[in-house]
Amino acid sequence: MPNGAQALMQTLADAGIEVCFTNPGTSEMHFVAALDDEPRMRAVLALFEGVATGAADGYARMADKPAASLLHLGCGLGNGLANLHNARKGKVPVVNIVGDHATYHQPLDAQLQSDIETVARNVSPNFVRSSRRTEDLCRDAVDAIAAAVGPPGQVATLILPADVSWGEGGQPASPPTAPDPESADEKAVNAVAEAIRSGGKTALLLGGRALREGALREAARIAAHSGVKIFSEVFPTRLERGAGRPPVERIAYLAELATLQLSAYDHLVLVDAKEPVSFFAYPGKPSELVPDSCKVHTLCDPAQDSKASLERLATALGADQAEPELQQAGRPDRPRGRLSAEKVCKAVGHLLPERAIIVDEANTSGLMLPVMTAGAPAHDLLTLTGGAIGQSLPNAIGAAIACPDRPVLALVGDGSAMYTNQALWTMARENLDITVVVLANAAYSILNVELERVGARDRGGEKARAQLDLTGPKLDFARMAQGMGVHAVRADTAEDFCQAMEYAFGQPGPHLIEAVIPESLNRTKRRVLPWLLRSLPHMPKSMARALKRKLAP
Amino acid sequence: MPNGAQALMQTLADAGIEVCFTNPGTSEMHFVAALDDEPRMRAVLALFEGVATGAADGYARMADKPAASLLHLGCGLGNGLANLHNARKGKVPVVNIVGDHATYHQPLDAQLQSDIETVARNVSPNFVRSSRRTEDLCRDAVDAIAAAVGPPGQVATLILPADVSWGEGGQPASPPTAPDPESADEKAVNAVAEAIRSGGKTALLLGGRALREGALREAARIAAHSGVKIFSEVFPTRLERGAGRPPVERIAYLAELATLQLSAYDHLVLVDAKEPVSFFAYPGKPSELVPDSCKVHTLCDPAQDSKASLERLATALGADQAEPELQQAGRPDRPRGRLSAEKVCKAVGHLLPERAIIVDEANTSGLMLPVMTAGAPAHDLLTLTGGAIGQSLPNAIGAAIACPDRPVLALVGDGSAMYTNQALWTMARENLDITVVVLANAAYSILNVELERVGARDRGGEKARAQLDLTGPKLDFARMAQGMGVHAVRADTAEDFCQAMEYAFGQPGPHLIEAVIPESLNRTKRRVLPWLLRSLPHMPKSMARALKRKLAP
After folding, report:
1. Residue to substitute from B30, B45, B97, B111, interface A, most A β-carbons within 10 A
2. Phi and psi dihedrals of B485, rounded to 5?
3. Most exposed: A234, A506, B137, B270, by fewest CB within 10 Å?
4. Could you tell me the pTM of the whole model?
5. Domains of chain A, with CATH numbers?
6. ipTM of the predicted structure?
């Protein structure tokens, strides 16, 4: 009869969980040993827990099924929390296994003893369970898997005491049966259809799984037929876009711009999305972005099937035979001259390979990315769903493992890249086809913008500015990456950058390109604004003028 | 009238809090701006929250007063949790400030919204408070400071919503008055004195602040007079040791050895220490290390004054005029030949500068360190109090900032160094006098030992072993450090290593030395054991023989 860990391993594999992203310690040694009993399970070691959890997030976004993470007690969970948060906010399924001391050891308050459950509740508000007996472990695991899968997906935390793991008498359990999600009910469909037919200006706000190609096509049919606008939530979990797919405009990160995007509409229809609110609060500015005059409708929620719901809506509107508008293929020219953030985005658009997965955490430097890649070959875009930086490098690992035949491109700011830089080692160890572009402007640029937006710039002086400044010393990401076994170069011209991209896309294994860009870029509102305006190509000219008036100094 | 952040800054400074270790985000921008209003406050930027919290821990261990940490919402707190855990377990005061969304923004469930308090309870079980009004903020802060200072010291978490920070009408508050800790009461003193006089073999187990020189001298007087043994807890918060100070034997990390250390005693007296338990549980082995036949007494607890308590005990025993045994000065010879973990420890003993602070997270590689540095010039030793790895580099930052005139030496295993490698950048930025030695054996060596100790080695195969193996690719720490602006070299001979140490100690600013040591070192019990035995020089020969019999294959 297997021990607890062996039975658990079999139960996970039976449920289709094939990858475990790990950073184990002593209390997880029997789980680790059981890896060799289960050929279906691949274990991917990370040197920091945030890498493991971020990889589990990226994996599930692309595989559409959960991976397991394996963490070491409360401190390991703490280290992995930020990327579990991103998974939670993105409604991504993760079976989060946290090793614990043996049950009888816990009352002794040894060095690593802490309250794991209280930490886990932050990311797993609906499912935290500490398994107490070996014979119950696999049933607990099946409950965790069922909770993780949903729909909607979520982070389910299973706490695994060492003696439950090593105890004899493990009993493998059958996989849970996932319920088929329902589509929107007739009442919701009719209410939305009526709003659209009423003639008021209407926008659909798509989020979650409604940003996959199938649902997008249904939304685009409705748009073509009824003239509604299609928006994407600001930070999509996974957006399928590019040539041949319906284009969709993302809600802007900056509340000032998002308000303008939404200002023209009488009806906003939520499709697996929540009502947009500003990312942060700002003194004297509203946090809610939808104007009072706009009526908000919900077509379907994250537990429902958004594609089927949109199909029903299309049918109700007579739009089911309409031809959706699809993005024309087209790439920007090859950039030349001194490198800038805009040229990096341009080069990405110029060179993006077929079937790429882009993980975008480029923050201020990536503002031009949506425009520059709009007509690039069809690709997936994974973004910072929960706002917890340090997501992109780990996400890229998971995406590359889920889709070994697809190239992965991670775009990341220098500040963000530091949080989980250990991901580079795992990329090298697993020889993953990932190209990492670090946009190095030697600043927390976004905070330079934010310092002003919250009205604190005039109050702060040298000490405040120093908190946002990453010079002295400047980070050398190429060298750091080389130290972790990843081929890496620096580029400060567009020519060098394009050449490095071509090399990286052409050669197997991971590559890092440090794109050295001027730090002055986002230093002031004056400089940021033109960028922002250009990044919203669908914005009417009158709105752009209003925006300029509103935000100009 | 100041805003909330400005009043808070003044209140912190008035209470003697002079350093804030930060990794801020948008919600902390007014706090950041207020730095320029308070010349007494030094802000030290970290590129990862675990660096900020570990630095706050190291600072308070050396400064004997808290620093503040500044973290960004629940995710930032998660990233900082492991090193706050170490501070909690070490009873180290930290005023942990966690920025939050504006109070009115919280119900909107924006991207970064999460339950901060539930995470904070893990490290701040006794004090978590979310300040709700600007005019109450400074009183809340004073309560947090009072809770942090104790005694005993603890992590007090103050959650700071953005609007409480930016709101006008901040009211600075007066510092808390710290109560003088009491010493042990007469009953406890007499009970312990009676046990010692009874003739049964007695050991004092010192922990916490009882490991400072003053308390140690009192304990050593008692030892000299009454023949009691003096032990230190296994992972001291701060142990004052070296030539001219009373020697003290640390309880071993391995439960098998600790049991043997404690087996001879009829009485164990706790002095600001808890009853020792094994670090982890092991199948079939007891977690409690004190034999049933040994009676446990408590002289004083962490809230009490251990030095005064020991003085009272010495007086009760008539030992107050006894001459304490003090460690003779003496250094090992300069090591030669191919580098090994033992030679690294030997070189440290040979070269340790005067008044050094050693932060020891060398794990398996550092087993010989206590022996090799026993007679080195008087120094402080900071250790991994909570077992959450990634402590040493951040701790070293805090220690160096608390004691700018003292050299800091951080010893760290390669596995551990990765968790908070971002600390290197802060060392360079602040030009701190820190020498980092990374003991690089390209393995989670301790887990190779633990895999066997938990009885899982025979079950595991290639996949399990791969989880403990850090080759493929091997990490190049010198290159990584150079990428973060720290002068760094690799050494694989004792000669090169000594030369690099001499250079590092002689030149200002941070230096990293990657000590390349054979990874075979700890691969098997057979190889580990002789090391362990030699690492306990005070062990009687009969006990060593018994140990060999017990643990030999």
Report:
1. B111
2. 85, 15
3. A506
4. 0.95
5. 4-166 (3.40.50.970), 186-317 (3.40.50.1220), 341-522 (3.40.50.970)
6. 0.94
